[in-house]
Fold DoxX family protein.
Amino acid sequence: MPIPDRWSPYLLSVFRFVLGLLFLGHGVSKFFGLPPFPMPLNPLLTVAGVLELVGGALIAVGLLTRPVAFLLSGQMAVAYFLAHAPQGWLPLANGGEAAILYCFGFLYLAAAGGGRWSVDALRWRG
């Protein structure tokens, strides 16, 4: 087996961990002000913050990766179309690049799973 093929399940886990931590940071910003969130929380942003906080943590550790990633992918699609698309169709101009990247990163995890280093993998092995 070629070396890159052997690394694939481990790199998937690293990708999942980094994506989860970055996403978790958005929830931390909304609820704990680190760094300060630039606007007051309304009900929609509060729900988004809960999904970012809890979902980001679950993704980072790899617990319930597929269903959580699917849910977060949908959240990011909604975020793009509600917050960014009305400002123009080009993601580079409307500030929606991160939402699109999160959307498709989570969609990939929903299909691929959490990788070898995840709580999900430990649950299946045990």
Summary: The mean pLDDT is 95.
